[in-house]
Structures are given as C-alpha cells and as structure tokens.
Amino acid sequence: MLRSVPTRARVTPRLELRPFRRRDIDPMVEAVEESWQDLAAWLPWAHAGYGRPEAARFVRDSAAAWSEGRAYDLAIRGSDLPGHLGNISIWPLSRRERSGEVGYWVRSSAAGHGIGTEAAARILQMGFEELRMHRITLRIAAGNRASERIAEKLGFVREGLLRREVHVHGVWMDHGLWALLEDEYRTEHTRWVDRGWLEP
Predict the structure, then answer these.
(1) pTM
(2) Of residues 137 and 80, which shows the higher confidence score?
C-alpha cells in the first residue's frame, strides 16, 4: 500500500469526497446536530452536546492521520443535496496483509438517497486502486439495516459476528464483519459503474 496519498478530491456522478478543511467545521457540526439522535444508536462519539471543539479536533487529527498514512477521512459533498452530507474514511489495518477498513455516516436528511452506497463505492475504488489493498472490511452494528443494505448492494460478504465489540453509550454492541476482496472488487466495479455509483 502507498504511504503518500494525494489530497485531491475523489468524485462520483453525484458526489465530491475530499479531505477535510477548517471551513468544514461548522457545516459538520450542523450535520451532527441534525443527526445525532440517529447516529447515537450506532456511534459512540455522537451525542447531543457535540460541538465546534470536537469537530475542530477531528479536522486537525484527520489532517495529521492523512499525512502519516494512518487514515484517510473525506467529507461527503453533493450537487443534489446541499451542505455537509456526512463523513467517510478508509484506514489500513495491516500493511503486510494489505488490509483496510471503511467507516461512514450520512446525515439524517440525506439518508435514503443512495449517498452512503455511492460514497462507499468511491472510497473502495480508492482503497483497491490507489492504496493497493487486498481486503477491505466493514464492521456494522447488529441491527443497523441501513449500513447492512449498503454492504449487500456493494457485494460484501458477511463473514461473522464480533460479539460485544464496541461500547456505545453504556451498551456493549455486537458487530457484523463484512469483507470485500480485490478480485471481488474487480468483478463488482463494472456493476457499480452501470448502477451510476462510479464514473465510467
């Protein structure tokens, strides 16, 4: 996998995914304020008091992680829906095994428009083609059908259940483990283009 990854935007037919900037702080806070009740069911960082200090710290840490090759966080922006639509990230798990993981969230008002699927298809393209990953996983909280549907649409295989893996607001939550391999990605890529999730 590459250590130095260009900080350019990655685009899809409807979206622009780009590294975070300081000017993303307020729009991200606004998106979290709108969505925290939905997000808090699955994500430990989402809470009613989420504010500017936490968003600023995220943006600062995101830039450092990108430059060090630890994680690649991208803001999701779109043409059909205005404002900050959510976040999506990919990070290496093992450089020797060329494995990585993807995580994402989409603001409540943008849910149900295929934003998560399209953004995930594009960051998977980045993972397999730019980062040269062999295997990319998703860990999805048990009961989070919206995220499971994204995994299913993209051709991920559910490999098992990670029991009581993440502590979310006082509850230990099980997570399903889903994976896509590089040869499976090559097969799925054409279908993703045909579905309009990626540029030809």
Answers:
(1) 0.95
(2) 137
Mean pLDDT of the chain: 96
Altogether, the residues listed in the chain come to a count of 200
How far apart CA 188 and CA 78 sit, in angstroms, is 23
CB 80 within 8 A of CB 65: no
Q: What is the pLDDT of residues 83-130, one digit of tens each?
A: 999 999 999 999 999 999 999 999 999 999 999 999 999 999 999 999
Q: Tell me, what amino acid is at 180?
A: L
Q: What is the full DSSP assignment across 54-95?
A: HHHHHHHHHHHHHHHTS-EEEEEEESSS-S--EEEEEEEEET
pLDDT at residue 1 is higher than 90: no
Question: What are 105's two structure tokens?
Answer: 């969230």
CB environment 92-130: b (16+ within 10 A), e (fewer): beeeeebbbbbbbbbbeebbeebbbbbbbbbbbbbbbeb
pLDDT tens column, 7-30: 999 999 999 999 999 999 999 999
